[in-house]
Amino acid sequence: MEQKVALHFLQASTVRCLLEPWCRELGFIICYGAIVLKLYRHLVEFRTRKAHRWVVRDLDLLRYLCAMIVAVLCYLAAFTATSLDFLQYSELVWQMDQPQSMDAEQVASNMCRPLRWDYVTEAGELLILGFGLQLAIASRNANTQFRERQFLVASILIEFLVSSTFYILRFWYLEEFNPSTLFLALFVRSQLTNTVTLGLIFLPKLWYQHKQLLSRGFSLQL
């Protein structure tokens, strides 16, 4: 997902505007889709109402994730096709009015033009995150190794709060934001969500393995 922010260092063009949704949504579904599926496995494995315990295999999770990726690919293909049709009437690059110009000249903003389709995409992201939070609530009594469930829930909750706040502010104050402000907001959002999520997922595991190595070394000394 950070690739979308990295693309903003390139000059705005039709190709870049077509690539941005692919980078964002594929990264989103791979990252948070995997987290949602992990929470689903915690819920299934620690369910106590059924007499027989159902174990969700890693292969099953991979199949579910692949199905989610295929669905997103179909959605992005439809998005790209619609955007190509939009090119017949206007450009994808966001043209901003230059107030100092007497002729109301427009300049490229190095940002892509906001589209109504973006609202559908953003609503879909929040629905997936909301479903993950629902699974988190349902599996709140599950005990996992090195408190994995708590860190997964924290990553989804942070993404949900930060992204929803960003979408609301952009919806209401889009006309007042200049391209530099939007780029800064995208960068801050990326650090608060993607970077924090990676830390929450991998750092506890590395710390747990580090403690295991220390315990084994202490046991050997004894």
UniProtKB/TrEMBL annotation:
UniProt signal peptide: none
Domain G-protein coupled receptors family 3 profile: start-end pairs: 13-207
TM segment ranges: 22-40, 61-84, 119-139, 151-169
Main localization of the protein described in the UniProt heading: membrane
GO CC, one annotated term: plasma membrane
UniProt-listed PROSITE patterns: G_PROTEIN_RECEP_F3_4 (PS50259)
Keyword Cell membrane: yes
Regions annotated as coiled coil: none
Keywords: Cell membrane, G-protein coupled receptor, Glycoprotein, Membrane, Receptor, Transducer, Transmembrane, Transmembrane helix
InterPro entries, A to Z: GPCR_3_C, GPR158/179
Molecular-function annotations in GO: G protein-coupled receptor activity
A Pfam family it matches: 7tm_3
Topology within the bilayer: Multi-pass membrane protein
Record bears the keyword Secreted: no
Protein location: Cell membrane
Family, similarity comment: Belongs to the G-protein coupled receptor 3 family.
Full protein name: G-protein coupled receptors family 3 profile domain-containing protein
